[in-house]
Design brief:
The complex is a heterodimer of chains A (305) and B (383). Chain A has 305 residues and is an alpha/beta fold. In chain A, 44% of the residues lie in helices and 11% in strands. The termini of chain A are far apart. The model of chain A has no long low-confidence stretch (mean pLDDT 90). Chain B has 383 residues and is mainly β. Chain B has three helices and 17 strands. Classes of the chains: A alpha/beta (305), B mainly beta (383).
Chain lengths: 305, 383
Amino acid sequence: MKNVIRIFASLVLVAAFQPASAADLDVFACEPEWAALTQELAGTRAEITSATTAHQDPHHIQARPSLIAKLRRADLLVCSGAELEIGWLPMLLRQSGNNAIQPGKPGYFEAAMQVERLEVPTTVDRAMGDVHPSGNPHVQLDPRRIATIATALTARLKQLDPAHAADYDARGADFAKRWQAALARWNAQAAPLHGVRVVVHHQGWAYLFDWLELQQAGQLEPKPGVPPSAAHLAELKAELAAKPARMVIYAAYQESRPAEWLSHETGMPAVELPFTVGGSDGAKDLFGLFDDTLAKMVGALHESR
Amino acid sequence: MKLCRLFVAATLALPCASHAGESFNPDISLILSGTYGQLQHDPANYLLPGFPLAEETGPGERGFSLGESELVLSANIDPDWYGMLTLALGGDGTSSVENAYVQTTSLGHGVTGRAGRFFSGIGYLNEQHAHTWDFVDAALPYRALLGNQYQDDGVQLRWVAPTALFTELGGEWLNGANFPAGGSANGGRGAWSAFVHLGDDVGESHSWRAGLSWLATKAVERLTPSAAGDDLFSGNSQLLVADFVWKWAPQGNNYERNFKLQGEYLHNQSEGDFTPAGGLAAPYSGNSSGWYLQGIYQLIHGWRVGLRHDQLKTDTPDAAFTGTVLDTQGHTPTRNSVMVDYANSEFSRLRLQYNRDESSLVTDHQWFLQYQMSLGAHGAHSF
């Protein structure tokens, strides 16, 4: 037993002498898209870690000790919010002992709360599946909303690090300029997608549909968060026989089998989309996320004809 | 919502809550749990040779019974405090306060203070509510040395170090009313604890936490009932707990497949006077220990299987205690368990468990069927 205590004591000492970060702001992003946005807006002024990757379902994350350690040192937390992280973030916040990033503090930034949200339910009942009372939180797939969130985030960075306000303003303006140019390009590229009927795996694409004016032809999950069942898929197949769709899309972190089955049965292509930064080889940053998403969807559209 | 849109470009930290009225109410959730138990031997006659057992500590109930049903209310009280209450509802119509504490949220510097009634932060399993356990029953060392779970009234202080490696130090000062303490010694300050937790990730797919805890308790005429009558103990105990948990999920995505390996070692040293049922008080000094190791594997979404082994060891006591509850009768208590459970959603779970229980002198084959459901506010689980 004495040896165990000795090993523990030395581990604690090793931990205590690890250097803290040299950047002005330590940023904890819940999802990779917000890490990428903060990177665009703060550059080297921020040291950024993302709690999740594109291969993880942001609804279901373990409240890991490493995340508590990261939150403990964070000056700013950037998350989707709107209850997306409700299963793990409140626990981490309470355990972190960090006053700066608690809800209501300037260090607590919820991206979804900066924009108008879709699918805000008038009643909520768990019989409807895993619904979010504040509306659909997956706001990162509408570049127009990203622009709004970027403006709010720049303001927040200036508030937290006023000494470099001019720097954040300059970076924010530069990002806005590049983003508007890209948006014009994407709008032109996406023109053939308007009105196209698309099947989704999970109800996570509402904002992409809103932007591109796509039509949702059905979803593989019978209810949000409930895994696709054979009975539901058969029903969907019958519906699609009467009213066909052009493709079925799913996120990189989701299982491909249900979408592939439906693709095989109906002949429409199944498309794996990055969903967030890092979800595909092309989605290396926020620009790449939309470049790759549109390229894959337009490609699938040509394939299905 | 209109207001929300107007504010989008503004710098204000105003949340655009669509349910502003509701958000002032506490989060309410209800845990509903029930068990069907099939035990060959009557649990009323259960004895763990060598170990005086706390009240309501045994292998479970026969037939249908209401398990750990709990009502949980929690909310931020103001910008500086968080509060929570857990009422445990017993099948016999009684209810008891399981947790009722307030906790600081704004001390900063990694410091969190807590006061009230709570599960002690020692070990790994001790702090977890029964409805988050992976098996129907507590591991044997927890049953024998902590009365299933050590809970008491008092204060707790935790500090998370500003390091890359998760490092948490904590300490508690407690009343000492409950097993392994008893009788609220030292004017109601009869127990204290200290613990350290370390943890980190290894790559994307692995994460771990390890801990070392110390619990010192004083007992004044602590009563432990057994089939032979009530035993009394007065004296001091020191408990050391070493725990670790390791979790794996491919690329950190635990939705489809994941694995959890967890083990703890508990060592207790007691010194004082023991009065066996119907006997005379005699000086007692002894060591006892126990460990368990369990692995839980989720093979497809919703379905998990688990294996657990636990066992205990205790010193052979003085001749004065031959024939009493402290007499090990040369027996080493062990148990092996296997379980399979299915979760329809993250809010409902059905479980089947089998124990080959050799903790008492007779081998018992035990089967349990259990449901665990939670409704209301979405609770967040710790690691």
